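Same chain as my last thread, 382 residues:
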Amino acid sequence: MKLAGGVIATVFIVLIVAGIIPRVRDARELRAETASVHGTIEVTVVPAKRAGATSDLVLPGSIESLHESPIYARTAGYVERWTTDIGARVSAGQLLAQIQSPEIDQQSEQAKADLGQLRANLNLAKRTADRWVLLARDSVVTPQEVDEKQAAYDAAVANLASGEANYKRLEQLQSFERVTAPFAGVVTSRSVDVGNLVSAGATLGGTGSATGRPLFTVAGTDTVRVYVNVPQSAINLVQHGASADILVRELPGSAFRGIVARNARALDAASRTLLTEVQIPNPKGVLLPGMYVEVRFAVTDSSPPLIIPANTLVIRTDGPQVAIVRPNNTVHYQKIELGRDYGDRVEVVTGLDSDAKLVVNPTDDIREGVEVRVLPPVSDPN
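reply #2:
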């Protein structure tokens, strides 16, 4: 009985030892393997830095002329000649084209002749009324007859005023035979040629139908403007009188200073942006209407955000993260909230301290809690 009990105890001890020893060996091998692997992981880190107190807000825009006007004919006739073509600089009142209107000229001459007849009728009506007033004093004529002569005189005065107004109207139409520039600027389009028939407000083509095209288009480019949509977070930058730099990619190294002239004082509900007009002096005509430009505003922030390199980001299903190397050289994945994306850099809103060391290009081997060796920073040749 004792022998059987000893055998059972021995078997039990053997089974326990046989189960424990492999587990201890496996754990030891796992720790050794982990230590070996962890000891070979080398990483490069960069510190999270705060942006400067002054940063740039760059918005796209398009140059427009401060004044642009299509020039239509104000009288009907044929184009006798034109004096300026596209690209020509013109001054206010300069002749652009001459229209020949024989009908208007003849009507004006007729109205001028009619004025002579109306003045003669007025003089006769006045003398007649004066004579009948004298005759009425001697009771030669009745008061009714005197009133009739006075009414004839008043009608002659009104007829003369009407004739003078008609003559002035025709003179004004004659003045419209000269198509002139309304302001100083550049001719950007011309759609007429000698012999074209034009009518008031439109150009008539060869078919005789009105095309509605202007004879010329004049743009004032001594001062140009840019409309930009400023995000809600930066509307304090675009108050009246604020400055901005205008950048043109085709003109590297040149920045044109502009001034905020006005804003819409109401945000667009869909985009949450404020329409803003920036005016730029352009005395040399370097900036042309239609150019694509970038408008740069200087942003001053008393509490600037953190900026991290884009190659430190890890995008996972539960949101963006960064791998932080803690003081004991172990890795911790920290969730963050991103702000603006600058391409090679990203703004961090929350979730990160300014003294954090971030792993550059973290791989799958760099897991939570793994121990790493931080490589010394490589000096920037620039």
